# Entry
Amino acid sequence: QLQLVESGGDLVQPGTSLTLSCTASSGTLDVYGIGWFRQAPGKEREAVSCISSLDHNTKYADSVKDRFTISRDNTKNTVYLQMNNLKPEDSAIYYCAADWGPERVCQFRRGLYEYWGQGTQVTVSS
# Structure
């Protein structure tokens, strides 16, 4: 069974950058599409970005496009979310999730993701 661990969350000021990591403590990520989701207090969990297992194609929510970059290093069994120019509205718990399958397109539909991490808190505040 795949176990995902997120790290890198922190309290940062607006306009700064942060990189989140999603590592598999058991299992390997290379056959999984990986998604990053976030949930702010009182709000639905929303998709932020995802990366496919094949070709590493990526997808971004409009709210983070041109600010966030998702990447994966299968040799380190890790997926990253580089977040630049952070805004207070980016504050949330960030979760990574894994969708099994050799696919060239990743999806934002939460129900497709079989495995989830416990989340890491990102707070953007001055």
Observations:
- The radius of gyration is 13 Å.
- The chain has a mean pLDDT of 96.
- The CA atoms of residues 38 and 48 lie 7 Å apart.
- The chain has no helices and eleven strands.
